């Protein structure tokens, strides 16, 4: 029976967890049973044994936590991972018995195809020139850097371990990770991850290496859910221009249809309309027309001179006539 490092660490953690639960249960039971004993010495011995079991369970809990977080990276430093060779299946031809025909067949015309399909050799993966132009690092990468095979998952825990590993995923999907272990990396050297869907490049990341020289790492992609189209996806890892490892996974099912979003309509802000001012018409200045004065013709009076009365001397008085 052969176990890999991850399976061995997981098995050890499971066994220690079961021992921890057993020690806690035996310790609590021993303390409870000691209270019912009448003799002081026996009660004390059982109490001490119960507390020792509880103390041992605390030590086991600490040991489980340390193994869960530090055991696997420490083992990888002592036993660096080796690259898993890809096995190419070969077709073995089974010899068949040639039957001798008893009836002579008339020769027939053999049709020769005009175009013959010649199988092509699959080239080694390489970094496209457009992505190579984005390289920033000036540190020479280590050509002997080692990467393990890729594990794919749509979620990670706090220690960067896959939650639901697999190679077949069904929509809807939001975030995908390709996890790997590595050794021999140089800090600051350029590394690149290419994501292909059915042979078409859909995502990439290239940047200087900012991790440790060995341990666990991952590359991820988180597009919009409607961009996870069904098909065969391939992830390629490069250190500098050297290809290290590739992995495949498949996405099935139609992606969710994006919900239409309401486009806010622009509300026109009322503008202050200038109130037209009443233009005061100029008042007509009436030019007085001088009245036509008709010359007044004074009536001509005919003066008649009345003669003064004449005085006639009579008697004693003057009587006018």
List keywords for this structure.
321 residues; alpha+beta; Immunoglobulin-like; five-stranded mixed beta sheet; 3 helices; 9 strands; 19% strand; disordered C terminus
Written description of the protein model:
With 321 residues, the chain is an alpha+beta fold. Among the domains are: 74 residues; 124 residues, Immunoglobulin-like, CATH 2.60.40. It is built from 3 helices and 9 strands, in the order αααβββββββββ. Strands 3-9-8-5-6 form a 5-stranded mixed beta sheet, with no helix packed on it. Helix 1 runs antiparallel to helix 2. The chain is elongated. It starts with a helix and ends in a 69-residue tail after the last strand.
Average per-residue pLDDT, rounded, comes to 77
Q: Runs with pLDDT <50, length 5+?
A: 273-277, 300-304, 310-321
Q: Helical element count?
A: 3
CATH superfamily caption of the domain at 129-252? Macroglobulin (MG2) domain
Sheet-strand content, in percent, reads 15-25%
How many β strands by DSSP?
9
Largest sheet at a glance? 5 strands, mixed
Strand order in space, largest sheet: 3-9-8-5-6
Order of helices and strands: HHHEEEEEEEEE
As for the CATH topology of the domain at 129-252, it is Immunoglobulin-like
Structural class: alpha+beta
Based on Cα principal axes, name the global outline.
elongated
- CA radius of gyration: 57 Å
Look at the structure and give the CATH class of the domain at 129-252: Mainly Beta
Quote the distance from N terminus to C terminus. 191 Å
């Amino acid at each position: 029976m052969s176990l890999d490092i991850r399976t061995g660490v997981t098995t050890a953690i499971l066994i220690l967890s079961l021992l921890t639960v057993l020690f806690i249960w035996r310790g609590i039971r021993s303390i409870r049973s000691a209270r019912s004993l009448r003799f002081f010495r026996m009660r004390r011995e059982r109490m001490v044994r119960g507390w020792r079991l509880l103390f041992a369970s605390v030590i086991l809990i600490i040991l489980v936590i340390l193994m869960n977080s530090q055991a696997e990276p420490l083992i990888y430093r002592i036993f660096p991972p080796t690259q898993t060779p890809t096995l190419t299946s070969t077709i073995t031809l089974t010899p068949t018995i040639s039957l001798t025909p008893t009836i002579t067949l008339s020769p027939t015309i053999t049709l020769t195809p005009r175009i013959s399909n010649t199988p092509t050799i699959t080239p080694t993966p390489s970094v496209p020139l457009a992505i190579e132009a984005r390289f920033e690092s000036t540190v020479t990468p280590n050509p002997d850097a080692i990467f393990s095979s890729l594990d794919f998952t749509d979620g990670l825990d706090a220690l960067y371990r896959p939650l639901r590993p697999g190679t077949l995923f069904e929509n809807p999907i939001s975030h995908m990770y390709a996890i790997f272990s590595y050794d021999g990396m140089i800090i600051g050297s350029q590394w690149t991850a290419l994501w292909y869907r059915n042979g078409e490049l859909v995502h990439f990341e290239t940047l200087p290496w900012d991790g440790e020289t060995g341990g666990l790492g991952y590359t991820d992609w988180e597009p919009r859910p409607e961009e996870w189209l069904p098909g065969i996806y391939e992830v390629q890892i490069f250190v500098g221009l050297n290809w290290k490892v590739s992995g495949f996974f498949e996405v099935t099912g139609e992606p969710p249809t994006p919900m239409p979003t309401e486009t806010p309509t622009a509300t026109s802000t009322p503008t202050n309309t200038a109130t037209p001012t009443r233009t005061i018409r100029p008042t007509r200045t009436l030019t007085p027309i001088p009245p036509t004065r008709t010359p007044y013709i004074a009536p001509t009076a005919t003066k008649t001179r009345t003669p003064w009365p004449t005085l006639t001397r009579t008697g004693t008085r003057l009587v006018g006539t």
